[in-house]
Design a protein that fits this description.
Blueprint lengths: L1 E12 L5 H6 L1 E11 L2 H6 L8 H14 L5 H15 L3 E11 L9 E7 L1
Antiparallel strand pairs: 1-2, 2-3, 3-4
Helix pairs in contact: 3-4
């Protein structure tokens, strides 16, 4: 077993509970951890035997852009669902989504949600 980790994927998107967030948008950072058996691709050195992390990035990008969500939890669930639908050889997925500078009435660097399945 092993992990493929993609950190700090940056997106500008229009998610949020408040109407203004869905109009103005915000910056989001997404981290992804994919647990998989890495022994086979380590031995074969062939992409066909590995979890394609470029494809994983494309899936995350699509989910960040495709639909406005009120909650980070909803985005995380959609990302996990889409990754399991399209990738093979993944045993566990963890996604962390950070909304940068959330509108909370004071200076806050970010708020985040982490989900695993």
């Amino acid at each position: 077993m092993g992990k493929i980790i993609i950190e700090d994927m940056e997106f500008y998107a229009f998610h949020g509970h408040y109407k203004e967030e869905q109009i103005v948008g915000n910056r989001f950072l997404v981290d992804l951890e994919l647990v998989s058996n890495l022994e086979i691709p380590a031995e074969s050195d062939q992409l066909k035997d590995a979890v394609n992390y470029h494809r994983a990035y494309e899936i995350v990008r699509k989910e960040m852009r495709v639909k406005k969500s009120n909650l980070l939890e909803n985005i995380a669930k959609r990302i996990i669902d889409a990754l399991y639908d399209e990738l093979t050889g993944v045993d566990k997925i963890t996604v962390k989504i950070r909304k940068m500078n959330p509108p909370m009435g004071g200076p806050i660097k970010s708020v985040s949600v982490t989900m695993s399945r």
